[in-house]
Amino acid sequence: MLLTLDPMYWLMLAPALLLGIWAQARVRSTFARAEQEPAPMSGAAAARHVLDSAGLQNIAIEPVDGFLSDHYDPRAKVLRLSPHVYQNRSMAAVGVAAHEAGHALQDAKGYTPLALRNAIVPVASFGSGISMTLLMIGFLLSSATLIKVGIVAFSAGVLFQLINLPVEFDASRRAKAQLDALGVVPRQEQEHVRSVLSAAAWTYVAGTLQSVMTLLYFIMRFGGGSNRS
């Protein structure tokens, strides 16, 4: 099964791939512009302020390597921020840090989509990792059963991304509300934060669209057990 040789595959994924390229370019350019705008505190300090104001003093904040590798770990109750976000006093850093703090607020409030997302992480990770192998073996052996199991396994990853969309959008909504309510970012400067969060949201949309279109391709090509390449 050589997807790279199938024009139908690229035709179906073209919109998602183009959207992904545009979204990644927008994230980097928007972040670079917002990084030039000074903020009254660093990303780590802003996140700490948001968390403490919500009574979440138990949530630790740690630096982590990588560019925009920021994330909240609900199991360890730790918010990890990349170097560009942790120490910089910029609107970009404050926006990203507040977004990740938004995930901690979701966790504390028992936000249902976040709970669902966290619950299916092991299944989604396993399914995404093994799906291509099952599809390849099923194709080589002309096994309709293996092909269908591979499609189901891939579906777990798609489900994760679909659930993840509202989680990410809600975290950004909470971030904007907290930054406004706490006065962390002056109202006249909030546009920079909104731009960063909006750009990041489009990367999630593009990734989800790509996964959905890939799943539809698998169903169209191999859902009936066909062994066409």
Structure, described:
With 229 residues, the chain is mostly helical. Helix content is 72%, strand content 5%. The chain has one domain (3-222). It has helices at residues 7-35, 43-53, 83-86, 91-109, 112-140, 144-182, 190-222; strands spanning 60-63, 71-73, 78-81. The longest helix is centred in the last third of the chain and has 39 residues, at 144-182.
| Mean pLDDT level | 89
What is the N-to-C succession of helices and strands?
HHEEEHHHHH
Compute the gyration radius: what is it?
Answer: 20 Å
Biggest beta sheet attributes: 3 strands, mixed
Number of strands: 3
Brief description of this entry?
The chain is 72% helix and 5% strand. With 229 residues, the chain is mostly helical.
Key descriptive features of the protein:
about 230 residues; mainly alpha; three-stranded mixed beta sheet; about 70% helix; about 5% strand; disordered C terminus
Please outline the helices and strands.
Elements: H1 7-35, H2 43-53, E1 60-63, E2 71-73, E3 78-81, H3 83-86, H4 91-109, H5 112-140, H6 144-182, H7 190-222
Parallel strand pairs: 1-3
Antiparallel strand pairs: 2-3
